[in-house]
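Students often ask why we bother encoding 3D structure as a string. The short answer is that it lets us treat folding as translation between two languages. Here is a chain of 592 residues written in the first language.
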Amino acid sequence: MHSTPSLPQLLRVPHVDSGLRFDISPDGQRIVFSWNKTGGWELWEIKGEETRELETGLRGAKFSPQFSPDGSMLAFALDLDGSESYHIVIHDFKTSATTDLTPQIAYAHQPNITWSPDGKMLAALSDKHGQFALHLLPVDGTPGRMIKNVFHPCWDVAWSPDGQWIAIEAESTASDRSIYVMPINRPRKGERVHTIQLKINGQVLNGQQPAWSPDSKFLAFSGENEEWHDIGLFNVESKEITWVNESVGDDTQPAWSRSGELIGWVHSEGAQTSFQFKERGAAVKQVKVGAGIHAFPQFTSNSVVILYEDVNRPPDLWKINLEDGAAVQLTNSLEDKLNFIQPEEIWYASKDGAQAPALLYRAKESKCAVVYIHGGPNWHLQFSWNPELSYMASQGWTVLAPNYRGSTGYGKKWQNASRYDMGGVDNDDCAAGVKYLIENGLAEKNKIGVTGRSHGGYLTMTCMTGYPELFAVGSAVVPFLNWIKSHKNSREDLQHWNIENMGDPEDNKELWIARSPYFFLDKINAPVQMICGANDPRCPASESIDARDKLVELGREVELLLYVGEGHSFLDVENVIDSEVKRVEFLAKVLG
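And here it is in the second language, the structure alphabet:
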């Protein structure tokens, strides 16, 4: 790759999946992870000095591998068509046989699964009965059964090493999560044991990412502790909750050492992260690869294996020595060194005067700019691998990426500020970025575009309809445009999120309509592009098709790109390249 790579070259750079977990075998000798090194999402294995693809014989994208307790088998999630209707599959290392435990299903599983300590069962989260609930799935292929429905969509699950408890993470109010600790074996005679929902001072705890200590006496989690998320411990015997640490910034993804003597987590402050850890009673220590993003830590004997990425490096596996902080790269997705513009973390005044955080990719002698809006909305852009943004900046466009109200990473009040106001205050935050760009000489009026994916695609369309005078061009990737129709056509778990964050669709119908850009397409006066996956379960392509037809009737300039066989996140690298190149080309028609 030469010093100024093309966008297709950048998008062809592989990366280890950073959205779901990798795993280390119980003996510490193997690491299995999902990697798109060959263009599709396959499982790969590091064993000693060798890195090789794990042959499964199955088509489809493979994610979230989990070793059985004895290391003889591997469970993983399989996405056949981008619809996120994951199948649960096991691979036997001794026989090399791969078995889909959920063939020909008409329902979905979450990709997070956990083994029973005896290796005979998987605890999986299935919406077979209309809502993601806890099911036990025997690995011998006999039928599974539902054992717990908390009547909130479940996302993650963890089985205690002693086999006595299963912890479940489920959606709660707003964007909160809740943790349930469920007894799995029958209690002794005369003893009544009920499922426990974690609470503090009588209030349901906003907690996520349950992780059991090796002795099963403590459940670690990332939980809301006033304004920030800290690492908490639930004592199974006393039922008490204590905090491992209390700090400014969010602490997430707790992990235990094999001995249980150490606990570690990812510490995040704004745009970058580190790995922190401590021994009981000792001070917190910190190590990191660089000024980028760390994720999914797992301990080995004296090190941590962790995913790391930054502006110039895609997500790869690294090993950091806990004693001296020395970092060794385990996977190498990109051999050539890049030298992209390093974004700055800045704040600017929103419409109501609130200071909105953002990343700024400051291009040299820039006259054009793009407001790039992240999805989620409960997410935020950090100093991570974003080749599209880096490419735009390298070509002379300044890129402003707002972490608008509703984003994580800047405290609980900021994250909840857009509840019942989606498409309102978050839209104002994004649109206010235009004033910042012009006043700081980073772009000329009528030379600013807007683009985003998922919720960012939605906000792209609310920017185009709500602030048509500010944007010269827009490209919305996998957007939704009509709250009412999207809600009606969504899975139950997505409907739950809609109601928690926008209220009841009947009681709040006026709000749902007012915040649906589909009903205001006549306001658009600039070229607009929509990019969709035909199998998208989150933002159905039908809404973009409807919007395209309406814009054509209105005589507006519109382009629709529909990718068959893709869902919300495109899995085929050729489709990723085609869609991203066409997005930049569409913006360039106006921005130059």
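Translate back mentally: The mean pLDDT is 95. Keep this in mind for the problem set.
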